[in-house]
């Protein structure tokens, strides 16, 4: 298996596992919190890669196992997945950036207490005075909410109160990945939506763009991800743009020093300034290094950004979607985010970057 196929396969397996996090609230919330926050997913990834995912689901609690499955809406809304796929095709034809937007939105949802659509909530448990995930600093620049609303509206007209928002987000993200040139992966459905939003957890636990390699690996390891899986997930930066406000701190105030990031080469520094200089704006960024295609952390995003694709020289063969250009950029010391470039600061992760970058 080539390095490219190996990376794509790993990404599919990991997303399949993420998308399987579907623990109903209420009676099984304790089991959900234990599973999603603490149990290693290494064994889960192995089972999925060995086509034995059903064994994993049978090992979960009965209340969980009876609520998810392939083609879950076969009887209650048989056209659900077809509708999502058709809507995504329409949206993608007009908004090519929707794939990256939903990939990031999905990641931010799943990384905090599992894939339960809690990031979509406008209030928590009916309490409009309670801070919600949308208001957390790393989530202020998330986009794609309106696209999920569009799909939800169509589904509600066909199958009222049947398909969960968590499943819509999961399916739409998968279809967006495929439309952007990524691989197709099968999904279980039957997730239940959360009534609670997790503001504090989102503030504390979503990886930041200026995290060093130790911090990044630690946050991912708390979810049970190995080094290989972490490097694969960060490869989601192959699509979309890194918002300029995520980059500006490297230009002006790296990690609160008041100076530029000393690890950036002068030539690359000048390129980033050309793309992202914003009238002396020197805002710091504290968002997520995972699939950050939009602008940075202010209430009103600047809307400018740099794709990894443009950081390759003309001599390097690369597409604009799911290929190896992200990893090739890191090999050349041209990671747009400090957290991305830090993958080369650890020999274990650097070895994986080299492997994934070695074959188009």
Automatic annotation (TrEMBL):
> Which sites are catalytic?
108 (proton acceptor)
What SUPFAM superfamilies does UniProt report for this protein, alphabetically? Heme-dependent peroxidases
For this UniProt entry, the molecular function terms from Gene Ontology, in alphabetical order, are: heme binding; lactoperoxidase activity; metal ion binding
Tell me which Gene3D superfamilies the record gives: 1.10.520.10, Peroxidase, domain 2
Q: Does the keyword Disulfide bond apply?
A: yes
Q: Describe the reaction catalysed, as an equation.
A: 2 a phenolic donor + H2O2 = 2 a phenolic radical donor + 2 H2O
The primary location reported for this protein is: secreted
Keywords, ordered alphabetically:
Calcium, Disulfide bond, Glycoprotein, Heme, Hydrogen peroxide, Iron, Metal-binding, Oxidoreductase, Peroxidase, Secreted, Signal
User: Which residues does the UniProt record annotate as the domain Plant heme peroxidase family profile?
Assistant: 67-360
Tell me which EC number(s) this protein carries.
Answer: 1.11.1.7
Quote any Pfam family the record assigns.
peroxidase
Q: Where does the signal peptide begin and end?
A: 1-28
Keyword Translocase on entry: no
User: Superkingdom of the source?
Assistant: Eukaryota
Q: Which cofactor does it need?
A: Ca(2+); heme b
List residues binding substrate: 207
* Region annotated Disordered, chain positions: 279-304
Cell compartments where the protein resides: Secreted
The residues that hold Ca(2+) 1 are 109, 114, 116, 118, 133
Q: Which GO terms describe its biological process?
A: hydrogen peroxide catabolic process; response to oxidative stress
Recorded protein name is Peroxidase
